Amino acid sequence: MKISVTVTILVLVASATFGWHQRIALNHLHDMEQALLANATNLTAGAKSGGAAGTPDTRMSRANRETEARTTAARLIAALKEVGIQAPGEEYQVVEKRIEKVLDQMYHMNGLQLRVMIEEFRNCPHLEDNWWRNQSIGAAIDALADTDPKSAMAVLTDMAGQLGDSSDRFDHVIGKWASTDPLAALAWMRGEKIQGSRAFVIGLAAKDPKLAFQSLVEFKAYTLHGSSREFEGGLDFDAAKQIARTARTLEERSNMLGILRELADNAGDDPDHVIQHTVQKALMAMAEGIPTYGYARASVWLESLDLRPGEAAQLMNGLRIAEARTKGEAGQWFEWMGEHLSPKEFELPAMQMGEWVIENPQAVEKWLAQAPDGPAKRMAVSTYAVNVAARQAEPEPHSEPTPGTYPVASAVDGRPGFVTSPFTGKIIEVTGTPSGTLVADPTFPSSEKKYFRIP
Fold it and tell me: For the segment 372-423, what is each residue's pLDDT rounded down to a tens digit?
C-alpha cells in the first residue's frame, strides 16, 4: 500500500530538519543500528532458551515473529534517522525518495509487526525528539489501521494528547474500523460517547447504509448552525450525501430509496428536522450520475419508483443537467421535470436551465423550436428572456429613483452570478456585474422600471 502524501510530507519535514541541524555522522548511526540489532538478537536468544520442553511450535513461531518484528523496527528506526540527513548540495527530492522507500516497508508489515514497531518507537532511547517520535508513531498507526483498525484505535486512545491534533488520524482509523467491523466500531463509539464523527458513519455505509443513516442521527454527524466542509443554508449534511453516493447502480439507488423512506416514516419527534434534511440531501446526492444511463433508461427507472410527493423534486435538484447536456438530452430532462414537478418545485432545477441558456443558447433555441407546450417550455422561454434581458439592461439615469433608496438584491447560495430580485423574488443572472452596481430589474417593462443594487 502506498504511504499517504500527508505522512510523507510530515516525516520528510521532520527528518530533513533533524538531519540538517544535527549532522549525525554515519558511523554513529551504524553503531546505533548495531546496538538495536544486538538487543533484538538477545530477545531472540531469550525466547529460544526460555521455552519449556514440549512448547508448541505455534508459541515459538509467535515469539520468533515478534523478535523479527523488533529487528525490523530496529532497522527502520536506524534507517529513518539516517535517511533524513541531507548532504551538502544534495537535492531535497533525493532525500524524499529515500524516506518514501523506508516508510514503504512499514506499509507492508502485518498487524503484529506494526504493534511491535509502535512499542519500539515509544520506548526507543535513540529517538530523543518527541515530535519526530510522534510522527513515526502516527505513521505506524495509519498503516496499522489498514490491517487492524481496532488495535490502531487502542493505541491512538492510549496516546490521547501525546500526538497533538489527531482528529484526521482518528477519522482515518474509525472510518476503517466502521467499514470492516461496523458492529464493533458502533459499540466502541457508544461506549466512548463520541459524537459528530462523519468518518464513522461514512465508514458504516460501506457495509450497511441503513445503519449509517441511523448512526448519523444518533451520533449527530451533522451541523445545524455554521459550516465545515459544506455550507447550505446553515445546514451541513455532507455525511448524508456521502452515504447516498455509495449507491452506484440503479438497483442500488432503488434500495437506498427504500432505506430513506423507512427513515422518514419512523422520524418520530424531529424538532430540528434533522431526518427531513438528511433524506433531502441524500436524495439529491443519489440523483448524481443518473443522466449517464441515458434518458430512455433512467426515465423508465424513475417511473418505476412510484415516487412520493417531494421525492421527485429532491432528485431533480440533485440531477446534474451538465451530464445530460453532454448527451444532448437536457431538453428531455426539463420536459420530464415539467410533467412531474409543481411550478414551485421547478424553481431550483430551473436555475440549471439558466446555465444551459448561458452555455449554449443555440441548443436551447433548437429545443424550444420543437418542444411541446408545457411548464418546461414556458419556463425555458421565461428563463431565456430574463437572461438575455439581464445582459442587455442598462438603467436610464432620468428614471432612477431617489439616490440612497435602491434595494439590494440577494445572492443565490451556491450560484455565483445569480441574484434574487427584491421586487419579484425571481432569479436573475448578473454575471460580470460588479458589486454595488445599479441595474434595472428586467422582469418589469420600461414604463415601470425598478432598480436594485448588486450585492
Answer: 888 777 777 776 666 665 555 544 444 445 555 688 898 887 778 888 888 8
In Å, what is the CA distance from 352 to each residue of 148, 339, 349, 379, 388?
Answer: 46, 17, 5, 12, 15
Cβ contact 220:196 at 8 Å: yes
Of 254, 244, 245, whose CA–CA distance to 301 is shortest?
254
Domain residue limits, the chain: 1-50+58-163, 165-286, 291-392, 395-453
- 431 C-beta neighbours (distance < 10 Å), count: 11
Cell of 102: 523506508
Q: How far apart are CA 342 and CA 310, in angstroms?
A: 10
* Interacting residues of 455 by C-beta distance below 8 A, sequence separation 6+: 408, 409, 410, 411, 419, 435
Q: What is the Cα–Cα distance from 7 to 103, expressed in whole angstroms?
A: 9
Round to whole Å and give the CA distance between 246 and 41. Answer: 49
Q: What cell does 453 get?
A: 443594487
Contacts of 2 (CB under 8 A, 6+ apart): 104, 107
Q: What is the full DSSP assignment across 397-433?
A: GGG---TT---BPEEPTT-TTEEE-TTT--EEE-TTP
Residue 440 DSSP SS3: strand
